[in-house]
Amino acid sequence: MPLPWHDALRNLITSDPAITLALLRAAAVKVPDGLPLAAGPYSVSDRVSTDLYPDNTVRVGPAHDRACTVIVEIERELSAGKLEQFAIKAAAVALETRKDVQVLVFTRALDAGVWDEPVNVRRGALSYVLTPVIYGRRDLPRLTDPKQIAADPASGVLSVFGHGDDPKVAEAFASATDFFPVEPGVPYTEWAYDCGPALFRSMLEAKMEVTDWPVSTPFAKRHYGRGLAEGEAKGKAEGEAKGKAKGKAEGEANAVLTVLATRGVPVTDRQAAAILACTDLEQLEKWLTKAVTATTIDDLGIE
Question: Cα-flanking dihedrals φ and ψ of residue 6, to 5°?
Fold first, then answer.
């Protein structure tokens, strides 16, 4: 059964197939430009008895006259056997379409350099060579500018997949979410959450606790819904706006403590009480930003 990070990358490609061409070009592979793109499942047969299913494919060009096909494979680990399977799939697609085929591979391995050699497949008198483009996590772009991520959320998701354990990358993506378009079926934040490491997920969960943007990750949905319910209940007596503001402050304070706990920063009961008692959202946001890289509570300026 595919894991969440696997499905997140596959869905990202389906939503934004242009990212595959950008990655191929970054690896010095020539692919046609200015043609319509379409991504989705593709099934081919080895002409004997086996059906072959790439994780995703991108058609470059119109359906009736494609220029090439990009096969996308997503693997936790690579092996010689898997690479040979990719070559067989590529050959089957090439035979069926009579067009060029490229193979783009994502792996959770930090560095894919060990697999840089072409894949040679020999079957008696027949032989063919596959030269896939393989991206390990550290090979993907590292984005630390929220504006750049907001302009290209798909690359931002890949940056989190590759470098989400870097506080600068995590903070940049979390900041950029304020500018993402809220489009049904294009949940970049959710895909990044599924792809990211624990540090990134903790930071994003903390942000989602105080956001007004509806999200669907289990943690964020639970905490967002709880804060909203509390705000509505208090709003009956004190005014909805005041209740929501207080709920946000409480959520932000809890977020600060969550991030500190995740980073293993000791916090005394008195310091925790001071954080929870704060109702200044601007101050709480400053503490949350500092908490992401804090090594001691002193880094937040709390005595």
Answer: -65, -50
Spatial distance between the Cα atoms of 83 and 76, rounded to a whole number of angstroms: 13
Tokens of 9: 């990358």
3-state SS assignment for residue 115: helix
- Reading the block at residue 211, the tokens are 């956001």
Where in the chain are the domains? Answer: 4-139, 141-196, 205-303
Q: Which pTM value belongs to this model?
A: 0.70
For 189-247, what is each residue's pLDDT tens digit? 889 999 998 888 888 877 766 555 555 545 455 545 555 555 555 555 555 555 556 66
Query: Is there a contact between 205 and 219 (Cβ–Cβ < 8 Å)?
Result: yes
Q: Given 3-state DSSP classes, what are the helix, strand and coil percentages for the chain, each rounded to the nearest 5?
A: 55, 15, 35
Rounded to an integer, what distance in angstroms lies between the CA atom of residue 292 and that of residue 200? Answer: 9
How far apart CA 11 and CA 155 sit, in angstroms, is: 13
234 in Cβ contact with 241 (< 8 Å): no
